[in-house]
Amino acid sequence: MTEQTEHLLALKVMRLTRPTLVSSQIVTAEAKDLPQNTFDKILRGTATTVQGAETLTAGQMMLLPQSFGNIYLGETFSSYVCVHNCRAHPVSSVTVKADLQSNNTRISLPIHVDKEGPQTLNPDETMDDVIHHEVKEIGTHILVCEVSYMTPAGLETSFRKFFKFQVVKPLDVKTKFYNAETDEVYLEAQIQNITVGPICLEKVELESSEQYTVVPLNNLPTGESVFSQRTMLQPQNSCQFLYCIKPIAEILNDPKALKAANNIGKLDIVWRSNLGERGRLQTSQLQRSPIEYGDLRLAVTEANSTVKIGDAFDFRCRVTNTSERSMDLVMHLNTKTKIGCGYTGQTEISLGPLEPGKFKDFGLTVCPVRLGLITISNLQLTDVFMKRKYEFDDFVQVFVVDEDYNEEEFQLDKSHLNAIMGEIIGISVECQTTVLLANVFLEVVQPHIVDVETSKLGPRPVTSVSSLVVHYN
After folding, report:
1. Is the CA virtual torsion 63, 66, 72, 76 positive or negative?
2. What's the pTM?
3. What does the pLDDT look like over 269-278, one tens digit per residue?
């Protein structure tokens, strides 16, 4: 009030925001009680009650903002700035500046961009504008509005007003990475609503970096989303999203480039409040865990997921030299050293010289001797130069079925899907949303399991046994 009486101009600032929903507070008393009918008279004069039914809570009313209040990170801060000439004579050289100051930065907000130079305000004339800014920092923010003008005596005068408000987090985003042995990365993003009201998630996308491509796993094989048409989150509720991230072809066969490509991408989240207030949040660059390679890397490039008893199981492997030196390799697959082995077959192949960063493909054949899931192990690679041996265990799996097995008649029992998914990628199934995400893998898991009562997949988030990789150090 002191500034309004001293200065020739009056400054008014009002934050523009959607109204909030409030319920009427019903308080009554018996006629014989001390307040008697005092509460009834107050209710009859309240705008939030219905005439003739003041004691009934008839829905909610919209309440206009009473103060600057809080704003959520990612929302757009909008404010109405008005300068009014409350004197009986004109005021010249009027300019208005608006700055938004946070803990680390001070940003000048554009205002009156359509006006050229200082303005002159006649008596009772107003100069106003609306400013907008998307807040990207948490903490205390101060809107500083400064008005400058020229007094009738020719003196340049100015005054400022400060408006403080808090910027708080609307969402709690937690991420988990699962490094598959096929150089793929599975990202689980859990988004929790920590606002005071419900929100609607309009978009949740993973924007990949230049070294990776992203495949969302949040849709069923039919193309339908695992979520409802509108992903609504009540306060403190959360939902989970799953993405498969694959390296591009240029770095897929380059161990050094793949090891250095740790930046996965950013999550872009767009939501709306219960009254349509839009917000957008983008995470910082997400990084995968560093990949540690040994001297040799063994990958299965081709393999069937099932084989009939008595038939030969053919598969192809790829060995990559991830060391800094050349090698002369000899491959040996032996089944005699393991008691109770589910297959037979013995192979020894000379792979020849292998330069650093290069790879060679070779084929292997074993004969399964029992039904069920069998694991191929005991593959040995020997470097003739250094006389060093590298052993690889559990590098490929295959399900051995009976001769009369018909894959088209097989139907996966969905009641066991949660247990299967827990072994594939280790995602907790305590959250209801994760159970919905499990349906994404229905088409992936179904061709690889014959009897869910007797089979067991290993803890590898892969789409087929042909993509398993073993690292040796």
Report:
1. positive
2. 0.63
3. 999 987 788 8
